[in-house]
# Entry
Amino acid sequence: MNKKGVSTIIVTVIMITIVLAAIGVVWVMIQNILEQGAEDISVASARINLDVQNVKVTEDGVDVQVRRNKGEGNLVGLKFIVSDGIGTEIFEEPTTISELGTQKFSLPYTGFVKSVEVAPILQSAGGKNATGQVVENFDNPRKDIYLEISEKTCSELGWVLGGATAECGDDIGCIKDVNWEETKNACENAGARLCTKDEILANAVAGSGCGFDSYMIWTNTECGLKGFYLVDGNPLPNEFYCEEDLSSITSSQFRSSIGVRCCGDN
# Structure
């Protein structure tokens, strides 16, 4: 065999080796894709059925009790999306709730709770985690409506300018022992509005004539799951709290009466 024939054989062998190596690389890539796809299909096909049984605002945050109903899937955690209607905060909590089991999760969230969404975190057979679609959504049923700007101006109300943050404020008819809705109606019927927590804290209506400086005052500042802040009429920095019982006519925390004080805008 001449040298040319040997060279041809060597080239052919090298080409075959390169082709086989390329086929091997491509096969490994295809295998990885197929395995990844199988894991994705496995996670996507999981049927996790959850119920939010209870949402409660506490001093430390928000407690959410979740029940897992019947449904397949390797659940390793839950993703909570808490919204105040403007922004959201996301919390991921590990869990291995079994079917028909329940668990309470304490989320370090402070603020008004408008909605809570829950999505399962699933683990595939290959040990990879993936977040599923939102399967449960709690919407706060509260439908409170209140004025954010007074119907009448301060001059029309005949009120003087208030504290650092208020346009003006005053007591309305020295009304006391009233719940949130009665206070709101009294203010709005006069052409005014409920004051905000910050306005009361800035002494917007302090010393306005009915002796309510020692009374608690309902505000339109939302808090908790369904509450509004009650603030002392002439407060120290910490003399306020979130009251979720809107039917209260006396302060459960400070043990004082509730008086009507309202604010207006220029």
In short: Residues 37-45 have pLDDT under 50 and may be disordered. The chain has two domains: 51-139, 154-264. The longest strand covers residues 75-83.
